[in-house]
Design goal:
CATH topology of the largest domain: Aminopeptidase
CATH superfamily of the largest domain: Zn peptidases
Structural class: alpha+beta
Radius of gyration: 20 Å
Number of helices: 7
Shape: globular
Helix content: 10-25%
Strand content: 25-35%
Number of strands: 18
Length: 367
């Protein structure tokens, strides 16, 4: 496989008392593994993960002060490790691949899906011949066997395919971690994942860019944690054994897509929110828990000295209404943010234990 680097020219504007625009180049890294079937090789499966993080903090960081290295082991070195491992697995078995696989490491995700948005508008493989996009973002901190999969409503085949792949996980297979430890999947971890399935194809990662172009997507995510967007997101906290299971699970799903002569059938996913990839001019300083998607948005944390902290929001609060919009999941919350303006006062309703509280929050301008 030949690795290619795509230059993405971006302009990022900051708002506030002064408006400034920074123009720079960022880079997507991609490679293509050609399929072998005379017909199906003209169709591609995209497997992606973003490789950018937050550097030494600043905008997007949840650390109390700027300057410390943000390692990004889970967000998103874990996804990139999965991307590289899948590239290794499939390249070793290329003669059995029917469809072409495009592997892409995206940049600019933390600034608003810049790399993936550029790709879907300048694709190296025709979008009408792209049958699915598989996205891995933060797959390294599994707890209690829980795995979140987004986009299951974007193709009618996804739910039965996921079930079949769960059953496949009970079969033993060997996997060697980067630390040289051999794990036999199925012998050591015989039980299936406890899955949270989210229908929507939109969400806070690069699969959203593909779903907006009517491509079926699946998004794999093991959940947020206290080290999210902090310098403490380090490699010693990665759950390597369970990440190996996640990668094996994704491999099984990709093989099922590859071998089925019928491409996944794109469907408009059920959503409690209006569709679209949104950008925000406001900042609240909340850390959402993306797994909580039925009766409000639970907060995993609140950044110090942020508008959320000043409003009295706390970790564990469940937001059920903000700025006049009912919040049932992260998508409702996302679209509420997109409608808010810096400096205006909004009411936020939260459930804290047995209490329902109404607080006042004043969003800050994103810097």
């Amino acid at each position: 496989m030949k690795v290619l680097i795509s230059r993405v020219k971006v302009s990022i504007s900051t708002v506030g008392a002064d408006i400034s625009t920074v123009r720079d180049d960022i880079y997507n890294v991609r490679t293509i593994l050609d399929g072998s079937d005379p017909v199906l090789k003209n169709e591609a499966i995209v497997i992606g993960a973003h490789y950018d993080h937050l550097g030494r903090g600043g905008e997007g960081s949840l650390a109390p002060r700027e300057g410390e290295i943000h390692h990004g082991a889970d967000d998103n070195a874990s996804g990139v490790a999965g991307l590289l491992e899948l590239a290794r697995i499939f390249s070793a078995d290329r003669k059995n691949l029917k469809r072409t696989i495009v592997f892409i490491a995206f940049s600019g995700e933390e600034e608003g899906l810049l790399g993936s948005n550029f790709y879907v508008n300048h694709p190296i493989w025709p979008l009408d011949k792209t049958v699915a996009m598989i996205n891995m973002d933060m797959i390294g901190r599994m707890k209690d066997n829980k795995l979140i999969i987004g986009g299951v409503g974007t193709a009618q085949e996804w739910k039965p395919l996921i079930k079949d792949s769960q059953d496949h996980m009970s079969a033993s297979r060997s996997f060697t971690t980067g630390r040289g430890k051999n794990i036999v999947i199925g012998d050591v971890f015989p039980k299936p994942f406890t899955l949270t399935l989210n229908e929507d194809g939109y969400g806070p990662s690069d699969h959203s860019s593909f779903y907006s172009k009517q491509i079926p997507v699946l998004f794999f995510f093991t959940g947020t944690h206290d080290d999210y967007h902090k310098p403490s997101d380090t490699s010693d906290k990665i759950n390597y054994e369970d990440e190996a299971r996640v990668v094996s699970f994704i491999e099984s799903i990709v093989r099922s897509i590859d071998t089925d002569a019928k491409r996944p059938t794109y469907t408009v996913a059920k959503s409690d929110s209006q569709g679209g990839v949104m950008s925000f001019n406001v900042y609240l300083g909340t850390i959402p828990n993306y797994a909580d998607s039925d009766n409000g948005l639970t907060l995993d944390g609140v950044r110090e000295d942020s508008p959320a902290a000043k409003a009295g929001l706390k970790a564990g609060d469940r937001i059920v209404r903000i700025a006049g919009r009912q919040v049932r999941n992260v998508y409702d919350y996302t679209y509420a943010l997109g409608e808010m303006k810096a400096g205006e006062v909004y009411e936020v309703e939260v459930v804290r234990g047995a209490e329902t509280l109404k607080l006042k929050i004043t969003p800050a301008a994103r810097k």
